[in-house]
Structure formats: C-alpha cells, structure tokens
C-alpha cells in the first residue's frame, strides 16, 4: 500500500519558501495542503507562481493554516522573531514543525519551542538542508576512518556572500526587530553546524568571537568570526558574512588526512556534489609539488537535498502515526547549534572575550 503523503501547511511567502515548496512537491511522501499569508492576494499569487496543486487551500493569516484539521505539519519560514509564537501554537495544535534557521533568537526561546513539541508528541526539525544530502554521510565516513584521517585536530568553516545594497537596506535579515542575529544567525548557523558535525556534536568548552565584526547602523551583525576550543585541544574557526564573495567551505584537518568541501551549504550542481580528501600527504623532491594528489569523490542524488530533508521529516511523521515516538536527534542538534551561536553573540557583546559553553 502506498504511503499516505504528509500534508504541509506553509506559514508565509518568504523567498526561501519557494525552494521548500518545490521540495515538498518533489518528495514522494509529502504534499502541499495549504498556505497562509497576511494578504489573500499575496498567498494566491505565491501558490500560482510556484505551481501549487489546485487542491491547495489559500488562507488569510497563519492561524487559519494551523487550525486546518487536515494539515499534518507546518513549514515555518517566518522572521526569527516570530518563530517562538507560531512554532509553539503549531505544536499545541498537534502539527509537526519544520522550522527555518536560525530556529530562535536564543536557547531560552528554543527550549520553549522544543518543550511544546515534546509535550504534544510532534516532530521538530530545523531546515538545515545540507545535513540530508548523501554527500554528508560519505564525508562522515572519511572523518571516522582512523587509517585515512586519523585524529581530528582542527576545523575551519566559512559561509559568506556579497548580499548587495538592496539586501543590506531592505532584507529582514538586517532588521533588528525581525532577524536581530543578522549574518551570525543566517550564515553563521551553517558554519557552527558544520563544525559540530565534524566533532560528532561535542560542544566546545569556550567560544571567543574574533575582533573586527561588521554591523549596520541598527547594530545588526553583517559579518563576524569566532574560534572554538575543546578541552582535549581541538580548535575550530569560522567566518560568516553578508559582505564577502560567495564561499561555503568546510575543512577538517586530521593527523593523517584532510577533507575539503567547497559548496557544503548549496551544492554547485543539484544532482552531483563533490568533496576532496587527502591522506598521508608529502612534499615531492625539492618541494616541486605534493603527493598523493587529493582525490575527488562525487556523490550523486536523484532528489535535491531540500527534498531529501522533506522526505526524511515526512518519514518520521509517518512513523509517529504508526506509534513511534518523535526522533530526538534533530531537536538536540538544533539546541547545540543555538547554544554555540548564543555564546558567539555574547562574546561579541563582551568585547570579544572568551565565553564558556554550558550545556
């Protein structure tokens, strides 16, 4: 018997919702049931322009979506300042919650969201799409290979893009009342998650933001960096920015090997994503080169990573309908990412002083 598709309601018409709407329609176990916006005209236009099924319901307001008894799950791409209210309301209406990142303004808000999800038995997942690409699992295999990679010593990650003058003036991500975390919340979230992924989600002991962060006139972060330190000597750095040419790098360094990926956030090609590894590298005679040359590993996928995310999320919902409990992995990863993000923000506010990360 074919699996009954999970029926999604979408809260708002954010630009990222275009991508996730497409993902919902591509996922074999999901469908779009409804969308809500503050304007009926805007919601109707969004549905038409993005090829929603004719059966999709159009609502004025977000509450109408979560009140619809036929909506199984909601995707929430609203400004971060609205996540607490609408994610909690959705959970209280027994709707599973796929929440855009950054998931909250701070860990205290996130704890309230997660408590609402847990107490109502609904699945929570953040929308960090690259986690669901098959390349991510392949890269993890290399990092766990003691012979080829050895012991992890350091990680560097960056996610930067030149947002342009219109973005820097008008986008919600530079408005203190909408997305006060700015580049740290938008791009830094990915860097922090990449670092935590590389260390198997072990929280660092301390975080120290790097001097030289950029802010707009309203005090919103436009670029920043940080170092992270672990008790056993591991160290990591990251840099995120709205002011710098596009980069999406993860570089974990081990005692025996190195992994490099140059497009971890959004693969440069939708159906194939490479990464590069080297082991036991040495300079050649007279340092005229090095050997062995890093090897390229290309990982293919029929579905884009955002559709794989939706498929996994919908699969978890299907398991809950069959009597399973919500998967706790995803709330835990969101909370750890938020905790490190919070520590970086506090370090910036304290004049780039070290901040201890306490679980």
TrEMBL record:
Domain GFO/IDH/MocA-like oxidoreductase: 144-260
GO molecular function, one term: nucleotide binding
Protein's organism: Nyssa sinensis
SUPFAM superfamilies named among the record's database cross-references: Glyceraldehyde-3-phosphate dehydrogenase-like, C-terminal domain, NAD(P)-binding Rossmann-fold domains
Family: Belongs to the Gfo/Idh/MocA family.
Record domain Gfo/Idh/MocA-like oxidoreductase N-terminal: where: 6-125
Gene3D superfamilies associated with the record: Dihydrodipicolinate Reductase, domain 2, NAD(P)-binding Rossmann-like Domain
Pfam families linked to this entry: GFO_IDH_MocA (PF01408), GFO_IDH_MocA_C3 (PF22725)
Superkingdom of this protein's organism: Eukaryota
Name by which UniProt lists this protein: Uncharacterized protein
